[in-house]
# Entry
Amino acid sequence: MNIQFLLTSLLVVAAPGTGVLHTVSTGLSRGARASLVAAVGCTLGTLPHMAAAVLGLAAVFRTSPFAFELLKYLGAAYLLYMAWGTLRDRGALDPNQPVPERSPLRMIVAAVLLNLLNPKLPIFFLAFLPQFIARDDPSPMLRLLTLSAIFMLMTLVVFALYGMFASFMRARVLSRPRVTAWLRRFFAAGFVALGLKLLFSTSRA
# Structure
């Protein structure tokens, strides 16, 4: 396995972004089990983008400004919705308040949507994965699928570690009301910042 691919993938996965922010927020507010569900959802959210890259469909975003703009606005709107929900849900980071029940399916759907509505991901995978496939590779499609699977596994493991650490810190953090208030604002501001960054992004990879 190409060590450069593994190191680059690790840097990409571990860099703070929408998925990391969501997983950490879930770990702090709902605990270890929920953070693992969020990690699974975020990982599944990369699957359609990888499939698009493998099938060559991501090229549409280079040639169709409308397709990119539509997905961009939907993604930004969803991130702003997540920010609003984070500020509104005061009980999620309050140890004295019961956390509203949320089914694993709903948590997975929410996490999948975060990555699914990011138009930069298919372009990223289209530009990223082919770099690690030799021109004379006898089975380029198999190689592409293998690299994609490794990237997804790495995403799941790293996000799960983020979430588990957040859940471990949960009791220490949630026992301080002032800290929890600032955490809500921090996560909300993070979603807003990511939404605005996406909103003003261009279709270039």
